[in-house]
Amino acid sequence: MSRSLQPIRPRKGVPATKAPASVAPRRAVVQLTNPPLDYAYDGSFEGLLTVLFNIYDRKAAPNSIQPLGAVQGGLFAQPVQIDTHEATAARVWEGLLRHMDQEARTRLFHTFLSEQPDRELLIFRYADLAMRAGRDISDNYADDNVRRIAGIAQQMYREKHRMEAFVRFEKTSDGLFHATIDPDFDVLPLIAPHFTKRYADQRWLIFDRRRRYGLYYDLTRTDVVQFETTTPQRTTDISATVLDEREPLFKLLWQSYFDHVNIPERKNMKLHRRHIPLRYWRYLSEKQPREQRFEPIKNKRPVQPGGPVLGSGSSAPQEEKG
């Protein structure tokens, strides 16, 4: 999986290349005339781009492209291991703009983050089709590869949007705001700009417990961090011993606020689950068991005996009849 916050990070001292206003002129594509090969790489997006370069350099189409940890060698042939080369990866990433626009290129990165079992071959087929088509293929939904990548891009957008909306932080005793998430896809590189901009005045850490890495913001920059422990984490909660002493009060206040603004008569659980699916409820304080029983606010003035009744007209006392 990619540990980059951007698909390709520009080298120090070299300005990032801007996408052209229109797709650049296309060049002749190398024909893959040699026998197909099995390729293996380190599992990073830069590594996959390096594999794409080697496919055309060797003129050998891929039978398979597998991360090193998942390589399954054949009886008579072993996969060709491709070492990641950042300069080559950057060259491939920029070269894709000759055959597709920036939005289509970004969808390839999103497809990689989706962690689909055949994502590497899917990305290769889309890129190869785009290079040989001589035109924009992003709307060619008759092709299965184009259709699948468009669908994956929609799924990634929804997951990114929901993570940005439903992540809840807890403050630790040292002033760090911590959140543990378990998304279906590897969306941390996609949500980093949102949280960096929104919470620029506080230190925070978002940890993906399934993929065992996170994002850490130290008031100046956001970095990818990885934890040495390999013990799987079964819950998104952190120990109460490291939380700020006021954190339970904040949780209680938020639950109380939610209970009082809720309108039971307008309850629509079908619509509610559509906007907030059940798998996100574990992140929300208002969905956790109540530590304090809900009591309606008693802020209405009781009617005094003999006093005016609401809606009866004038509040002035009536004269006694003789």
Written overview of the protein:
The chain is α/β, with parallel strands linked by helices and 322 residues long. Helix content is 33%, strand content 12%. The strands form two sheets. Strands 4-5-6-7-8 form a five-stranded mixed β-sheet, with helices on one face. A three-stranded parallel β-sheet has the order 2-1-3, covered by helices on one side. The longest helix has 23 residues, at 144-166. The radius of gyration is 28 Å and the shape is elongated. Mean pLDDT is 82; it is low at 311-317.
**Low-confidence sequence ranges:** 311-317
Count the strands? 8
Instruction: Report how far the terminal alpha carbons are from each other.
Output: 93 Å
Mean pLDDT, to the nearest integer, reads: 82
**Alpha carbon gyration radius:** 28 Å
Sheet with the most strands: spatial strand order? 4-5-6-7-8
Q: Strand fraction band? A: 5-15%
Shape: elongated
SSE arrangement, N to C:
EHEEHHHHEEHEEEHH
Query: Biggest sheet, in brief?
Result: 5 strands, mixed
Counting helices, strands and paired strands, the structural category is alpha/beta
Helix content, binned percent: 25-40%
Q: What's the number of helices?
A: 8
Core attributes:
elongated; 8 strands; 322 residues; three-stranded parallel β-sheet; alpha/beta
In terms of topology, how is this protein built?
Elements: E1 34-41, H1 45-58, E2 60-67, E3 80-81, H2 86-95, H3 102-113, H4 119-133, H5 144-166, E4 170-171, E5 177-181, H6 188-198, E6 204-208, E7 213-217, E8 222-226, H7 247-261, H8 269-275
Parallel strand pairs: 1-2, 1-3, 5-6
Antiparallel strand pairs: 4-5, 6-7, 7-8
Helix pairs in contact: 1-2, 3-5, 4-5, 5-6
